[in-house]
């Protein structure tokens, strides 16, 4: 029986809400103040490149910080490291509000990302504590219903807030959001990792956990697929704005709306997975999602080469993100399934790879210019690699037994 089975329904629903909001730290930290970057550069008397770097350093923090928060949650339980992370996120958001120079802001953003990473990785570990198998996939899809609302709302809300708030006002809002989430987590989230299940060692035990993960072929395959999938996603994230606005002439408002539509497509894919996973199992849903993602991504270069132009890209990208939403929760389920005792460390590796490999590939792909062709080829190649590795992961999962 899962931990959740013995928990009152309202408590489970409250946990889903709190965990989903905590998982939204990433999109909220990145998307909410995106429209304010030019005003930020002007206000601090800095270059556009340094203003954009405030996004990059936060992304690095969100990725690298998971390697700290995840193992700590295996050692000290989920609740304490999570509350510390949320409180530090709130503190460093306030530091962003008060930053007098771009250098101070860059440091504050890095620390904000490091602290916010606790919400991302410990959420996954808590879900694994509560569920396993198809039930875990369903739980992750429900979390996506909450957390994926952030990238739908944040760009549009950020554009509207830019009419009444400057960039410091946006960070003041993030400070308030952090404080509210601390209260929600403190009052609505119980400890899910019992004392007997926590490891008592230090770095040696963490090393043992890492070696155990490295010896699990299924985990390694899902990790590699996540790296390739992250590269495809961040190629879309980093290049689509330039391609759709500069090359095809979309207005900032139209692009924000299209960005929200794509986020909604990703959310709907996760919900389709939630409906079908008990019937088909996580392994089949994972493979189906990855193959569909590869197919949709392969249409992107075709749409460019065949001259389909803007309509072709606008039709293909939502399909790509919908398919990614189908596979994502099930890949996490397969990766964490055999690692309940080290779920924090396992989730940390998955999160770190996703948040660090992608941001490296996107800029490299755009070295020759952020063109539609470069974006399409990068997304298609990375998605094909992810699908190939996912097929190997599927075969490994099926060999382990029907529970996957």
Automatic annotation (TrEMBL):
Highest taxon above the source species: Bacteria
Transmembrane regions: 12-30, 50-69, 81-100, 106-127, 139-164, 170-189, 218-237, 257-276, 283-300, 306-326, 347-366, 372-395
Entry coiled-coil feature ranges: none
Family annotation (InterPro entries): Efflux_drug-R_Bcr/CmlA, MFS, MFS_dom, MFS_trans_sf, Sugar_transporter_CS
Protein's GO biological process: xenobiotic detoxification by transmembrane export across the plasma membrane
Location(s) in or outside the cell: Cell membrane
Major facilitator superfamily (MFS) profile domain ranges (all copies): 15-398
A GO cellular component entry from the record: plasma membrane
One Pfam entry name: MFS_1
Membrane disposition: Multi-pass membrane protein
NCBIfam families in UniProt: efflux_Bcr_CflA (TIGR00710)
Family: Belongs to the major facilitator superfamily. Bcr/CmlA family.
PANTHER family associated with the record: MAJOR FACILITATOR SUPERFAMILY (PTHR23502), POLYAMINE TRANSPORTER 2-RELATED (PTHR23502:SF132)
Annotated protein name in UniProt: Multidrug effflux MFS transporter
Organism encoding this protein: Leifsonia sp. NPDC080035
Source taxonomy: Bacteria, Bacillati, Actinomycetota, Actinomycetes, Micrococcales
